[in-house]
Structures are given as C-alpha cells and as structure tokens.
Amino acid sequence: MSNLAVIQKRYTYEDYLKTPDDMRYELIEGELLMSPAPSIKHQDISRELAYRMIKFVKDNDLGKIFYAPCDVYLDNENVLQPDILFVSKENLGIIGEKNIKGAPNLVVEIVSKNNAYRDTIQKKRLYARFGVKEYWIAAPEEKMIELYKLDNQVYQLHKTYFDNDILESHVLNGLKIELKEIF
Question: Which residues contact 148 (CB under 8 A, 6 or more apart)?
Fold first, then answer.
C-alpha cells in the first residue's frame, strides 16, 4: 500500500493574469476557477439591473458602476468578477487601469446552475471579509433578489425581494427598482 500525497497548486494573481482571454476565470482562495458564458436570461437580468443602477448613479453623481468582465482584486489569491459592482465617489481611488483594487461598495451576483455555491457561499464570505457593504444575490429561477448588509464582517439578510416587489438599496440610498421589470 502506497502513501500518495496529492498536492494542489495554489494560484496567485500573477498566474491569473496568464489565463486565456477567451474564457472567464476567477481566483478564489488560490484556486483558479473557470466559468462558462452566462445564459441569455442571466445576461438579460444583468443588463436590466445595470441599466437602472447606472442611470441612478449618473443622475445623482454617486460614483461608478461596472459589470462583468471586470476584475476585482481583493488580494493575491482572490480576484473575482462580479456581475455588477458599484464604487462610490469617495472610494474611486480603488479603480485602477486593469482592475478594481479593493472592496466595491456594492456587488451584485446573478446565480446560475454552475455557480450557485460559488456566489451564495464562497464569494459571499469573501465579499464580507473584504468589506463590501451591500451584496445582492439574484436568483433568476425564483425571480428574487436577496439583499445582504454587512454587519461586523458578516452579512445579515436585510430583505428578500420577489418579482412583484420594489427593491430599495441602502448603499445607493434612494434607488428603487421594480423587479417585475427585471425578471
């Protein structure tokens, strides 16, 4: 009987930068993860949310909205590509030439079958640990968005919004989105 040791390579940001441009990658706790292109429904929801958020942020001169693919560099072993993110005017210094270096103020992830665990568990923990103040998890099949607020580096579920509700952000104070227009 042999004693085999399995050694798993831990990847860094430098490794991440060497990945091909034709695929979408994320680096989570040193693990390099590939994601296929999102579904059309996913893209439709992302576009509708981003459109409303961009308009609100521009109209009120609050900062900037970005959407995937856009790297959010949290540290050398954690580089994520949220579906949508908001960086406040006061926090614009984290916007670099190649990436967002640090925690955005708000992040939106749209769950699909192949990334549910990643978005609802892994990324949620990372966003909390690095200080993202508000986190939305959109679930297309359920036609709902869970809004989490950061409290002592842990997310607390503030409210679950369904397709007949009007979502109200705390980070983007005054933003109201009718979810029937999203789903």
Answer: 124, 134, 135, 136, 137, 155, 156, 157, 158
